[in-house]
Every structure is written in structure tokens, then in C-alpha cells.
């Protein structure tokens, strides 16, 4: 990896500093910008146009999936490597649907992240070993993941609704109308079989969209 510029996106400054130290040990690799949320990631990408974005999914407000989708809409050649605590196959598949070039879990060895960045830099698709196993098991399973049939925008709205965000707040964050949010909300409940909003929250937790202690 030589002459490689990277944008780091994570809401924890200490975590970003650790990634920066790790990645900048590689010859010619520079972290040119950092961001702590989806809006900041989009702005930083447009300003710096880095070679690779290393981005967490769990961000305050709109998730990394939403940031990934917006970046890819602005630049269809953007290379985004998701680096996250979420190890479920459904999350990884949604990230790839949104345009991710790779998906690595934070439980992986540091060398796994370095290897994935190199793979993405060469135009390849990177997966950590645990995610490869999860996706293989998911494909072989007869089970039906809650979010498998939802689009990326539906997944994002489900996560925000389950996090306790109001319709107006979601509309502002995603730059859509409150009526559109409501339509998505009702459609999502019908698709995943949620009887009430409380049931919706528990289904979202079960799918790994948010941690139990963050649910409202």
C-alpha cells in the first residue's frame, strides 16, 4: 500500500486514534481526515476524496450504512470498508447492497484490518473470516432473517424508529418528508410482521440493529 489516503469514520476519538496509528505504520499510508457521524463523513469525503473510507456502522444519528449510500451516490467509484462490531450476515449483506467494498469486524486481529485495506485498495472485496463464515451459514440456513427482505433505506428507518427517534426527527436526518417516513414505518411493520411499535423494537434488537441498552 503506497500513496494511500484514508478517511476514518467512528464516533469514538480514542478508537480512531488507534486505527490511525495502526494504518499509518504501513508505508505510504496517510489518514487524511476523520469524522464522527454520517454527515461529517459525507462532508469529509467530498472535501478530501480519499482512496478508501474505513467506517463503522454504529454512528450517532444516521448510520454508517446511510453514510455509505450517500457517498456512493456522490461518487460511484468510492471504496468503503466497513469496520464494525456487528458480526451478523444480514448487516454485512446490507452493507454490500449499499456499495461497500469490504466488511471486517472489530473482533478481528489488527492484521485483518490492514489486509482488508490492502485488498480494497487493489480493487478487491474484503471480508473478515468470521463474516465469511456467517454469510456461508446464512446461505445454508433455512431461517429467515428479520431484515433480509428490507431495502437499505427501510433498514435505516427501522433502526431509527427502534432507537426512539420521532417521525419529524427521522425526516430531518434523512432529508425526506414526515409522510414518507410514516409510509416506510407502516410498510416495514407489515413486511416483518410487527404487531406494535414495541414488537418492532424487539425485532430490531433481535436482528442486531441496535443494542438492548440503547433501545427506548
TrEMBL record:
Pfam families per record: GerE, Response_reg
SUPFAM superfamilies reported in the protein's UniProt record: C-terminal effector domain of the bipartite response regulators (SSF46894), CheY-like (SSF52172)
Chain ranges of the Response regulatory domain: 5-121
UniProt keyword Membrane, yes or no: no
Domain HTH luxR-type: 143-208
Modified residues (4-aspartylphosphate): 56
InterPro entries cross-referenced by the UniProt entry: CheY-like_superfamily (IPR011006), NreC/VraR/RcsB-like_REC (IPR058245), Sig_transdc_resp-reg_C-effctor (IPR016032), Sig_transdc_resp-reg_receiver (IPR001789), Tscrpt_reg_LuxR_C (IPR000792), WalR-like (IPR039420), WH-like_DNA-bd_sf (IPR036388)
ATP-binding in keyword set: no
Signal peptide positions on this chain: none
Keyword tags: DNA-binding, Phosphoprotein
PANTHER family for the chain: TWO-COMPONENT RESPONSE REGULATOR (PTHR43214:SF43)
Listed name of the protein: Response regulator UvrY
Gene name as annotated: uvrY_2
